[in-house]
C-alpha cells in the first residue's frame, strides 16, 4: 500500500518562484501594477500535506505577520479535525460516539457535510470511515479487497443520517459508526484561512492546501494567478491551464492514496459497493468556495461521469473537468478552456 504525503498534488499552480509551469506571456496588467507590491510566501506541512500561502502586499512585514497568524489558525483547526490525534474532538467523537459542547468549527463542518450528502444522494458521506478502514485492513493482510460479507457488515455502520446534532452536542446514533473529514476538512480550513487574510486587508492571495486552491486578486506583477491541471498518470504534463477567477478549485484522484499500483483500489470508497469506484481517475471542480469544491470533487469520482456532470450542471457557480481511467477528458459546459 502506498500513501503519499500530499493529499492532492494533482493541481499545480504557477506563481512567482513556484516553477511548476513557465508561461512567457506578459499581460497589460503588468505595466499597470504597483511597482512596490511584493509576494511573501511560506510553506508548512499541516493536515498531512504541504500548505503554501502567497500573500501580495506593499508591506512585506504586514504580509509576513498575517501569513504566520493564518498558519496558527490552520494548525488549530487541523487539531480539531484530525481523526488520528487522541486530543482532537473528532477522535473523541469516534471513540465514544458522543461529544458535548463541540466547537463551532466541528458543528459547522458536520452540518455542511450533511448538506452535501443530501445534494449527492448520500454518495458523499463522511460516515464511510468503516468501509475505508475495512479496505485498509484487507489490503494490509491479504493484498486483496474485502469479502462481500465483511463489506455488508461495514456498510451497516454507514449513513450520514446517523449524525445527530443538538445545539453543540453531537451523537452518532449507530454504535460503531466513525467519521472521516478527509474529503472536506482541507477545503473548510483553506476558506477560513482566506477569510482571516481578508480581514488583514490582504486582497491578493493564493492558498494551496495540497491541491485545494483559493486564488484571489493578482500576483505582484498585476497578472492573474495561473493554475495548471496535471495529467493524473504523468505529473510532467498538463491537461489544462487556466487563469484564476472568483472561485476556488479542488481535485480528487485515484492516485492520491491507493492500495494497488494500478490505482484501481484506492482511498476513495463508494458507500454503495464498499470499494473504490472504477470509472474516473480524477475530478477537478471549480466552485464558489473551497469547501464546496473539495466535497464535490470527491463526490464526482464516486458518482461517475454522467451523474457527476448532471449534478455539476444543476449547481450554480460550479464547473468540472473529469478524467476517466483511459485518460479521456470531459468538461462541464462552463469549465474554462
What would you note in describing this structure?
This protein is α+β, with helices and mostly antiparallel strands and 337 residues long. Helix content is 33%, strand content 26%. The chain is built from 9 helices and 16 strands. Strand 10 (226-231) and strand 11 (234-243) form a beta hairpin. Helix 8 (290-303) packs antiparallel against helix 9. The protein is globular, with a radius of gyration of 20 Å.
Key words describing this protein structure:
337 residues; alpha+beta; four-stranded antiparallel sheet; 9 helices; 16 strands; globular; disordered N terminus
Q: What's the layout of helices and strands?
A:
Blueprint: E1 2-3, E2 11-14, H1 28-32, E3 38-46, E4 49-57, H2 60-81, H3 89-96, E5 98-99, H4 104-119, H5 129-142, H6 148-155, E6 163-166, E7 169-172, H7 185-199, E8 204-209, E9 212-216, E10 226-231, E11 234-243, E12 248-253, E13 257-258, E14 280-287, H8 290-303, H9 305-314, E15 319-324, E16 329-331
Antiparallel strand pairs: 1-13, 2-10, 3-4, 4-8, 5-7, 6-7, 8-9, 10-11, 12-14, 14-15, 15-16
Helix pairs in contact: 2-7, 7-8, 8-9
- Write out the strand line-up for the largest beta sheet, numbering strands in chain order: 3-4-8-9
Largest sheet, in brief, is: 4 strands, antiparallel
- Which percent range describes the beta-strand content? 25-35%
Q: Specify the helix fraction band.
A: 25-40%
General shape: globular
| Integer-rounded radius of gyration | 20 Å
Give the helix tally: 9
Q: What's the count of strands?
A: 16
Mean pLDDT: 89
Unreliable stretches (pLDDT < 50, length at least 5) are 1-34
Query: How do the helices and strands follow one another from N- to C-terminus?
Result: EEHEEHHEHHHEEHEEEEEEEHHEE
**Sheet/helix structural class:** alpha+beta
Distance between the termini: 36 Å
Amino acid at each position: 500500500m502506498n500513501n503519499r504525503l500530499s493529499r492532492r498534488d494533482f493541481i499545480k499552480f504557477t506563481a512567482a518562484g513556484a516553477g511548476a509551469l513557465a508561461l512567457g506571456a506578459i499581460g497589460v496588467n503588468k505595466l499597470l501594477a504597483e511597482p512596490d507590491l511584493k509576494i511573501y510566501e511560506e510553506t508548512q506541512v499541516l493536515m498531512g500535506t504541504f500548505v503554501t500561502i502567497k500573500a501580495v502586499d506593499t508591506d512585506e512585514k504586514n504580509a509576513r505577520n498575517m501569513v504566520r497568524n493564518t498558519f496558527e489558525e490552520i494548525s488549530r483547526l487541523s487539531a480539531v479535525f484530525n481523526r488520528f490525534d487522541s486530543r482532537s474532538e473528532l477522535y473523541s467523537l469516534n471513540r465514544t460516539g458522543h461529544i458535548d459542547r463541540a466547537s463551532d468549527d466541528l458543528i459547522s463542518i458536520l452540518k455542511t457535510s450533511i448538506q452535501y450528502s443530501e445534494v449527492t444522494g448520500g454518495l458523499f458521506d463522511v460516515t464511510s470511515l468503516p468501509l475505508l478502514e475495512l479496505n485498509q485492513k484487507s489490503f494490509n493482510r491479504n493484498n486483496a479487497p474485502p469479502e462481500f460479507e465483511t463489506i455488508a457488515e461495514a456498510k451497516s455502520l454507514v449513513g450520514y443520517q446517523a449524525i445527530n446534532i443538538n445545539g453543540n452536542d453531537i451523537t452518532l446514533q449507530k454504535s460503531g459508526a466513525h467519521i472521516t473529514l478527509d474529503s472536506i476538512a482541507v477545503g473548510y480550513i483553506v476558506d477560513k484561512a482566506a477569510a482571516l487574510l481578508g480581514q488583514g486587508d490582504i486582497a491578493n492571495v493564493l492558498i494551496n492546501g495540497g491541491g485545494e486552491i483559493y486564488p484571489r486578486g493578482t500576483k505582484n506583477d498585476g497578472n492573474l494567478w495561473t493554475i495548471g491541471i496535471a495529467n493524473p498518470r504523468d505529473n510532467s504534463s498538463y491537461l489544462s491551464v487556466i487563469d484564476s477567477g472568483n472561485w476556488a478549485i479542488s481535485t480528487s484522484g485515484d492516485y492520491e492514496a491507493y492500495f494497488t499500483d494500478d490505482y484501481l483500489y484506492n482511498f476513495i470508497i463508494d458507500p454503495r459497493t464498499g470499494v473504490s469506484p472504477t470509472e474516473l481517475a480524477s475530478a477537478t471542480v471549480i466552485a464558489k468556495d473551497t469547501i464546496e469544491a473539495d466535497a464535490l470533487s470527491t463526490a464526482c469520482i464516486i458518482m461517475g461521469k454522467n451523474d457527476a456532470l448532471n449534478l455539476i450542471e444543476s449547481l450554480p457557480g460550479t464547473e468540472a473537468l473529469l478524467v476517466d481511467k483511459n485518460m479521456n477528458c470531459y468538461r462541464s459546459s462552463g469549465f474554462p478552456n
